[in-house]
Amino acid sequence: MKQIGVLALGDKYGGGIYQYTQSFVDALKYDNTNNYIIFCNAHDTRFDHYGFEVRKINKLNSNFFKKIVRIFQFILFIRKPWFFSKKELENFEDIDIFISPVISAYPHFYMDKPFVFTLHDMQERYYPDFFSVIELSTRWLNNRTLSMCAARILCESNYVKSDIVKFTGVNENKISIIQSPPPEYFLNYKFINAQFEIVSQKYNLPNKYLFYPAQCWFHKNHIKLVEAFKKLTLKYDDIYLILSGSQQNNYDNLIRKIDELKLSEKVKHIGYVDYDDLPYIYKMSKMLVMPTLFESISIPIYEAFALKIPVCSSNVVALPEQVGNAGILFNPNSTNDIASKIELLLIDEAFAKDKAEIGFQKVTNYSHEHYKKKLLSVLNDL
């Protein structure tokens, strides 16, 4: 029986990786052939009742000298835990294999142990303007070094797999495509009728709204969505747009655009929402809109599918592969196309309901039991 360390170190501010990690652990709890140890941040209580051993990590800040040395270690593939404390070494020394759902070097690279990690996308190769010089350098170094040193690489689409081969030069046989289902929390969710009114009042939700949950990163394309939504408001005065996620990065530009288009009464950004409230916000919406410019796999799309919510999505990267015939696709650079495709779902409720049902059937085929078997096929190869 292997000792496998699952590095669940991402938090809710990291976008869809938070939910991706949740699905990862949801699947592994069905396996009794290995011993799993979950490493998570000190404040994270998600996995405390899963039956796994959970080790909370208080990652120490590195001084300037240590950071420089670790950069050179990374560049030169020197996999030594030179600056690890005794406590850190004790935390990790009994692990046979590390699995990292996030792109991180800590601690597996430095412990010089086999590891599997997920490379979610290589967006910086297509939209370098969305990143600072430091971010571009960090992403290049992480992707290059981790890909070269990993025992296996996971991704969620053929599109991303081809990018990994193209931009890192690793052998394609080292890469496994495994799509993850949404967290079990969303599958077969049991709603409480009284909670709808509570959640609606908590976030001051309108009766009829589109929903877009996404961090305010540039590639999430909030500006184009708002411009397209303006066109819809000229025809439908009872429709609203609800946004959730971070209020940073492109947030100030978004608010300026909302004011410029005189949409402050129609567009509401509710920030981060409590995870327990999220299914209700989905369920009360008319549809999920996903106007992103770059996405390997969209967790919110799977969440919407699981809750039988219609999906209107951009047609970029792997999203057509993910959505299939279960939603409506649009060109995210065309406000006219975004608006017209949203309108299709708004005016034809039967059509929207049919799409939602197809989405539900699609996502229920991605069971966590099936997901577990695919993950184990990778781990057993090691």
From TrEMBL:
It comes from the Bacteria. Gene3D superfamilies: Glycogen Phosphorylase B (3.40.50.2000). Residues 15-179 form the Glycosyltransferase subfamily 4-like N-terminal domain. One of its GO terms (molecular function) is transferase activity. Keywords: Transferase. The keyword Iron-sulfur does not apply. Residues 205-354 form the Glycosyl transferase family domain. This is Glycosyl transferase. It comes from Desulfoluna limicola.
